[in-house]
Write a structure and sequence with these properties.
Length: about 300
C-alpha cells in the first residue's frame, strides 16, 4: 500500500464519522416519537378506563349494589324447600354434606326497576364476595351488542357482561340446562379477570360460589369445574343424551377439584372469558344453580 493512498483512506474515515451524529439524532427522534405515542396511548386508555369505572360505579348505586356503601342492607338466604327435598333424597345419611349444601349466604336487594330505566336489556346481576365481580348482566339479540359497549351505549373495551343470546330467560328465569355468561378478562383487574385465579385450588376453596340475582329469583351458583376450551368449540345449552357422563367429564377435566355434586336434575351456569395466554383458548367456570329463598325484607340487617 502506498503512502499516497493513506490520506484518502483517512479522509474516508472522517467522512463516516461525520454521519454518526446525524444517524444518532434520527434514532433519538424516532425513539422519542415512539415513547411519546406509547405514553399517549397509555394515558388515553387510562382516561377511558376511568370513565368506564365511573359508569359502573353509577350503575352500582342505581341498583343499590354499591359495595362501598356501608349502609347497604343484606340478609341471609338459604336454598328453597324443593331443592332441599331433592338433595335429601340423594343423601339421607350424610348430615355433614347436607349442612354444607343447605348453608345460607348473604344477599342484597337489586333494584331492577331503577336499572330498567337506564337500559331494558339488563336481565340479572352477578356478585362474588371478595372480588371485583359485582356487575349487571345484559342480553341482546346477538352476542356482539355488548362485547364492546357499556350499558349507556358508549363504546369501550370493557364491554358489559352478557348472557348468550340463545339462552332462554323467559319469565326472568334460567330456563335452559346450561346458561352462559360472557365477560372480558381485563388485565387491569376488571370484569371477569377474577376467573383466571380459579386455576388455583386455594383460591377456589375461598371462592366456592357467587350469587346471581334475577327479577324473579336469586340463585347461589356453586362452582364445580373450571375448564379450558378452544375458541371455536361448540357450546351446549341443553344436556346431551348422556347428561351425567357430560357432567362427570366436566369435573374430571376441571383445573381445581370440587366435592360439589351435579346431576341432570340441576341447571348449571358457565362464566366464560379469555385466558389471555393463548388467543385460541377460553376459560369456562361452571357452577350448579341453587335457588334461594329471599326472606321478608323487613328482616334485613345492615352491613355496618
Amino acid at each position: 500500500m502506498s503512502e499516497t493512498e493513506k490520506p484518502a483512506q483517512s479522509g474516508a474515515k472522517k467522512k463516516k464519522k461525520k454521519k454518526s451524529p446525524v444517524i444518532l439524532l434520527i434514532l433519538m427522534i424516532i425513539s422519542l416519537g415512539v415513547f411519546g405515542f406509547s405514553a399517549y396511548k397509555i394515558i388515553s386508555q387510562k382516561v377511558e378506563d376511568n370513565e368506564a369505572e365511573e359508569a359502573y360505579e353509577e350503575i352500582d348505586k342505581i341498583a343499590g349494589m354499591d359495595k362501598d356503601d356501608d349502609t347497604r342492607e343484606t340478609m341471609m338466604a338459604e336454598p328453597d324447600e324443593e331443592y332441599k327435598a331433592r338433595y335429601q333424597e340423594r343423601h339421607q345419611s350424610d348430615a355433614h354434606l347436607a349442612e354444607d349444601e343447605f348453608r345460607a349466604v348473604p344477599i342484597s336487594i337489586v333494584d331492577f326497576e331503577a336499572l330498567w330505566k337506564k337500559n331494558r336489556d339488563v336481565r340479572a346481576w352477578i356478585q362474588m364476595e371478595d372480588s371485583v365481580i359485582n356487575y349487571p348482566v345484559a342480553q341482546a339479540e346477538d352476542n356482539n351488542a355488548y362485547l364492546r359497549h357499556l350499558l349507556n351505549g358508549s363504546y369501550h373495551r370493557f364491554g358489559t357482561l352478557f348472557f348468550d343470546y340463545r339462552n332462554d330467560l323467559t319469565g326472568d328465569k334460567l330456563n335452559d340446562d346450561i346458561t352462559i355468561i360472557y365477560g372480558h378478562n381485563i388485565r387491569a383487574g376488571d370484569m371477569f379477570h377474577t376467573l383466571q385465579f380459579f386455576t388455583s385450588q386455594s383460591f377456589y376453596e375461598n371462592h366456592r360460589y357467587c350469587v346471581l340475582y334475577m327479577p324473579n329469583g336469586v340463585y347461589r351458583i356453586d362452582f364445580f369445574a373450571m375448564v379450558i376450551i378452544g375458541e371455536y368449540d361448540q357450546l351446549l345449552f341443553e344436556y346431551p343424551e348422556n347428561a351425567q357422563g357430560f357432567l362427570d367429564r366436566l369435573k374430571s377435566r376441571s383445573i381445581f377439584k370440587s366435592t360439589v355434586e351435579v346431576t341432570p336434575e340441576d341447571k348449571i351456569v358457565g362464566l366464560f372469558t379469555c385466558t389471555n395466554e393463548d388467543h385460541s383458548e377460553r376459560y369456562i367456570l361452571y357452577g350448579r344453580v341453587v335457588p334461594l329463598i329471599v326472606p321478608d325484607q323487613q328482616t334485613t340487617e345492615s352491613t355496618e
